[in-house]
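We give its fold:
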Amino acid sequence: MSAPVPLFGRMWRDLRGVAAVEFAICAPLLLFTFGGVADMGLSLRYQERLAQAVANGGQYAFKVGPTVTASSVQSMVQASSGLSGVSAVVSGPSLGCASGSPATLVAGTAGHACADGTQPGTYITITATVTYTQILPHISTFISPTLQQSEIVRLQ
């Protein structure tokens, strides 16, 4: 006759429910990982659409030339983004000199050369922002909720 097995000994050898416990431990980790990857991808998509909208506004301003109005460029940026809540700010047209990388605009005077020897031109500056709503706001803290894109366009 064999000796009775203690209660804890039987539980230690019993493998029923092990898969459920493993799943309960791994599922939240996988969910947070995939959620973070999806959040990052969507925020990059928003940034790309915002950049394309600003580029479209810049192309429109370049084609129209120095007679372009800030409100028409702003409308073009907002319409071409396809995103809700896009805020576009257009400054100019103004006479100036673009220099540096990334480009900055310095006020210029007609008839006087810029620091790099070129003549001043008519420029506009387009800045667009949009707020990205995160899927997992407490997990994806490395993603900025405010996305911004800027462009300086020479009109002549």
Q: What stands out?
A: The chain has three helices and four strands.
